[in-house]
Fold this sequence. Notes:
The structure holds 2 protein chains of 2 kinds.
Chain A: E1 2-3, H1 8-27, H2 43-49, H3 62-80, E2 82-83, E3 91-97, H4 107-120, E4 127-132, E5 136-140, H5 146-153, H6 165-175, E6 180-185, H7 192-195, E7 202-207, E8 218-226, E9 234-242, E10 252-256, E11 259-260, E12 265-271, E13 274-283, E14 288-293, E15 304-308, E16 315-319, H8 324-332, E17 337-339, E18 346-349, E19 359-363, E20 372-376, H9 382-392, H10 400-407, E21 413-417, E22 422-426, H11 441-453, E23 492-495, E24 498-501, H12 507-510, H13 532-552
Parallel strand pairs in A: 3-4, 3-6, 6-7, 16-17, 16-18, 18-19, 19-22, 20-21
Antiparallel strand pairs in A: 1-2, 4-5, 8-9, 9-13, 10-11, 10-14, 12-13, 14-15, 20-22, 23-24
Chain B: E1 2-3, H1 17-20, H2 28-45, E2 48-53, E3 57-64, H3 73-85, E4 91-98, H4 107-110, E5 115-118, H5 128-136, E6 144-151, H6 161-170, E7 174-178, E8 187-193, E9 197-198, E10 202-210, E11 214-222, E12 225-235, E13 239-246, E14 252-263, E15 273-281, E16 284-289, H7 296-304, E17 308-312, H8 320-323, E18 328-332, H9 341-354, E19 357-361, E20 383-385, E21 396-403, H10 411-425, E22 432-438, E23 442-450, H11 454-463, H12 473-484, E24 490-497, H13 506-515, E25 518-525, H14 532-540, E26 542-548, E27 570-575, E28 577-579, H15 583-586, E29 597-601, E30 603-605, E31 610-615, E32 621-628, E33 631-636, H16 654-665, E34 673-680, E35 683-690, E36 699-702, E37 707-709, E38 711-715, E39 718-724, E40 731-738, E41 743-750, H17 770-777, E42 781-783, E43 795-796, E44 801-805, H18 807-826
Parallel strand pairs in B: 3-4, 3-6, 4-5, 6-7, 7-42, 9-15, 16-17, 16-18, 18-19, 19-33, 21-22, 21-24, 24-25, 25-26
Antiparallel strand pairs in B: 1-2, 2-44, 6-43, 8-10, 10-13, 11-12, 11-14, 14-15, 20-30, 22-23, 27-29, 28-31, 31-32, 32-33, 34-35, 35-39, 36-37, 36-40, 38-39, 40-41
Amino acid sequence: MNFTTLTPLAFGLGLAALAGLLFLLQRLRVRHRDVEVVTTLFWREAVEETRARVLTKRFRHPWAFALLLAIAALIWAAIAEPKLNAIEATTRIALLDNSAGMARGDRFERAKEDLLAWAQGTPAEGRHVLVTGATQRALLLPGEEFHLLEQRLQGIEPEAAPSSIPSQLLHLASTIDDQAEVYLFGGDGLDEEFAGLIPDRLAIVQVGEALAESSNSGICALGVAPAASGDWTRVDVYVEVRGEAGSQTPALSTALAGSPIELQAETTPSTAGIHQFHFRDLPARGEEFQISLAGTDDLPLDDRASLRLPERRPLRVALDEELSPILAAVLEHDPAVILGQEQPDLRIVADARSTSVPTLRFVASDLQQESFLVTYDDSRSPQAVLSSVLGSLGLDAIDSAGLASEARVPITFGVLEGPQREIGVWSELIGPNFAFRDSRSFPLFLARSLRWLARVESITPWVAAGEPLVQPESTGISTLQLAALPRRAAETVARGDQSFKASLLAPTSSMKSTAMPTPLQELELAKRGLDLAHWLLLIALLLFGWEWVLVRTERIP
Amino acid sequence: MEFLNPEFLWAGLGLPLLWLFPRSSRALGHKALRTLTFALLIGALARPVSVSIDENEHQVFILDQSTSVLGDSDQRAQVLAQWAAGLPKSRTTTLITFGSDDGSLPEKVTKEFDRHLALPKSPDESPIALALEAASNWIPDGSKGAITLLTDGLATKSGTSRIAQQLGERDVPVHCFELPAFTDDAFPIRVEPLQPLRAGQTARLRVDLHGQGARGDVSVHGPEGELARVRDVSLTTGAQAWLEFETPRVDFLPLEVRLEVGSGPNSVTSNDQLIQLLPVKQARRVLYLGERQVGGEKALSELVGPGYEFEAWQGDELTPARLANFDLCVLDDAPRSSFSEQSLRQLRDAVEREGLGLFASGGKAAFGPGGYHDSPLADLLPVEFVQKEEKRDPSTTLVVIIDTSGSMGGNRVQLAKEVARLAIRRLLPHDKVGLVEFYGAKRWAAPIQPASNSIEIERALNRLDAGGGTVILPAIEEAFYGLKNVQTRYKHVLILTDGGVETGAFEPLLRRMANDGINTSTVLIGPEAHSEFLVTLANWGRGRFYSVPNRFNLPEILLKQPASSKLPAYRPGRHAVQASGGRSWWGDVEASAMPDLAGYVETRERPGAQILVETLDGAHPVLGSWRWGLGRVTAFTSEPTGAGTESWRDWDGFGPWLARVLERTASNQREPYRYELRREGAELWLSAQRMIADASPPRARLLDEERELSFRQRSPDRFEARFFADPASDLRLLAEAGTLAGTQVTPLASIRFADLSKELQVDPAGALDLSALSNATRGQFQLWNDNTSFRPTAGGESNPRALRKWWPWMLIAALALFLIELYYRRRPQRVVVPS
């Protein structure tokens, strides 16, 4: 046994002090009272009993002392809040889901009530309550008072985020090495494949009542892609709405840059309640495309979504005459490029002359130390620029080893801070003796270089809550490991100069939960238990009452 | 104020009993004290609390004990214990450790913490993100807290962003101390193919390496043994090794990369291996369209190696569905008449719109000679047929055989000279001419020489005079042998005689000459109107017969074909060639070692085409290529397995080079989807980006479990399947998608623990940026020093709420009152003396 509020030493010292004090009080002369003596023979004895000028008397009434000491010791022990070590607390973890799916009707309120009832009936020692949704947080640590949970639950509401219970369960499986019980309050249900991955040491119990039948339709996909028509300045948008099987095609309201707009969409016949809408050739002007479902249903969080369409404008490129035989054919096939000398956005030059617009220049190797030199105009560190441009310019796709073996010199990449963006490339590399010009990566490099110089943003196909931003190109493992992640709908995250607002887009939240819960009543919860301090106090109270009776009946002094 | 156990308050109703029982008394003070004490005890049982500001701090310390960290872990734990002991009393401390075998720490360390959590040892040996998430779960919502992280940052798994953002949002600072890491070692970090592997083709792997100046060999091994090795690689930070080998014909290729350090620091050898599982695409599917080259597809298949699966055309109609099954179409020496107009249009459309590769080759039945000049394929080819330039005067060598026998005496020999002069006069300076006279014997009156040497030729003619017998056959043989060594488009023999020639084996000679492109015409000199024999000679020699009775009827000798007839564009003979183009076309093949060509079809380069091989003489394209629509078209103006490349049979580089050319030409646009498989522990995402507009939605299944994956569309051109799988298992998948033409299958693979690095194989360049993590959470960042003194500042809720317990104070008050009451009832009072 140990004590919560006192150390054993302090408890012992306090108890000794109490015993000493009671001993002194026990020896204190009993206050005056009338004593009747039947004969003067007893007078002396009576005088001895109630001596007039002494403070104490000899220690008497040891049983009374013992009773008083027991009462004081019990109260003192209750103050120290003793806990029994012998009971090994079973780890019981409650996961409260506050993802979007919990916003259907009173589902979240019922889950909270169940959680409180569960917490009340669960020993505090092994009880750990977590809330998981857009973020994971602890609501109640083991040993904390149940009432703290009530306090901390205030203000916890469902968020426009997908359920993160599966990932939280995997986290628990990775961090808990012993037997544990995990109680789920809410969630979208766990499929069989996933459940098979949870180790046996974790017993999963879904708590609650099965959801009543309800109707809901939600926007589950909103994505953008370059226009299938090939028009560089336009994009296609895909919208998917999921509802109950056999539901009617929902009515969509659309807006562009905040202004309602009537758009015709190609629709695909619904299969199993999935309605698909294709919006073709929307202008790519960097405006926000908003979409919302008409009417009301059980879950408003998934009835609207938005996506910022990319900005795509033609690139006017001035090409030096001497580069024309090499590059013109490639550039003419680039739908983004308009070749011409008037007011160019970009220049492609064959020398080192200064230009007033961002420039791709092919210069002799004796004029430029690095094979590829990127001049940037922002405040990022050179390392950050180098790591980002390697992918965005397609330089990582270049067979640098092959080029190096042809050139018999190392192919190097460098970055330099300057007043405007430029890319310098050895002119020899696009000569007839190098594979670079003929390689598949060359048109890629050329196209991406022009887009980087013109600050053309790459298309981010969708931005969904709880999902990392989709990389425009495959990148593998992020080396920085601190990439941005929108956690809930309407949250804005930034990548480079661009910012993105997330939408929910979570089918499992929009559709009815597949979970098969166990009603709380069926759980073998302990009745609200009394702790040891309670029992000590109750005993003290009984003894205290008994002592009162003894005193009042003058059986003890 | 609230009560945790308000039910005990009901006991307060019994307090009045104290005043009534056991018996009434006037000791009011005593009763009041006792009642108050009872009330306090009952109140304490009801557990009164109130909400107040939480002064408690939740301090979590994370200690990285993994192998990559240098130094004494226990000593650091003791320092942490000292820090914990120095914290204010109102705190809760948690110690989280990871990376050690048993997670045990000295008791004097653990006793300073309220709890110690040792994360289970797993393949993720430096789970920094996991530890941060666990730490977050030990700082309650709405409380103050801080996390102090001691690590080298070499996380074996990426993905700290989610928890870093979350802690930043909660304003929980992460104070980072960077521990010294184990660096005196060399190891491979990762291995990646430059391009997807394809059966039979050269695989190129990039191995990223780390080292501190060591040198060693890097090898890659497959199930059958070593596949490739690079020797004496310098192992420094950022070092790479490139390994090339021929991809076996398997669906999935397990690989092991081994590093064998020869010299320099390499403290640990257990991390010198790396395993990978790569999917292998099936060999390029090639439709072989050819009929003149018997067994051509088999010979070509043997020549280019196992990277190509040839299927011979069976004469059926070419349809989109049929063509869509192939990456490349080889049109080898098949005449245009073999195909319907519709088939050729479909072939053209497949190249233009579907990206099918077209390799056109051949000799006498290809290109112009094959009749393709007006076909739908004519524009596709990067070379232009010379039939369209027939107005150009073709070069000709004329050998004039003049009968100077006795029968030609008088005017006849003069008449023959006139005819010869007339014929020679029609020649251009680049033509050649020779004179043979026969007069019982043969003699070169003028050897074959440029026609521009008119003076010499005229002198030779003038020297001719009649005399001797008429023996013509040796003269024709002489002319034949002379013409065999001449390189002109036309070769012609003109026999001028009065017809009195001997009999002999003319027919075989003249037919052979005709087959070799040497035509023979005959001219009857003299008044005889006709000579059946000379007509026959002309027929055998595929020439013409002319009659010259007198000097007023000199004929127009036709030595060159009219413009409307087909030119013999096929050029037999030895032709020196020169190569151009870069490594992508030639690879490691030595272009200068290319032998002379034995025959080719003369063509002309089209503007925009890339000519990779051309003849030295005339600069005629031999191999040209360009993009056409979505596809690539390559023209090889000779027979890859026929007579034209007979001289290349012994050239070692021919097969590899041709394979490379076919690979460059073959479609890369044919994959309906570009797939990417991402793995994070037990969660996987398979994304598919549509590359062909008419491709059906993708399907995929796990091979080992025969489990279908469910894709959902995310954008107009992207689909995604999210699924779960045991992180300790290798995954083999087949993704399928249909196009108008059929189903395309793509193998995909993921090695077990693909998202993890081994503990001692973490790329230092990819280490967690602890400074950035601290900045993102407003924590502090320092390099570790054993003598560091640190007091972690807590963040979090500005006004954290806590429950203030009132019942201990009530119990203390009750205890005090109990003692007071004892004193009260026993205290000395005035002495009453009995009267």
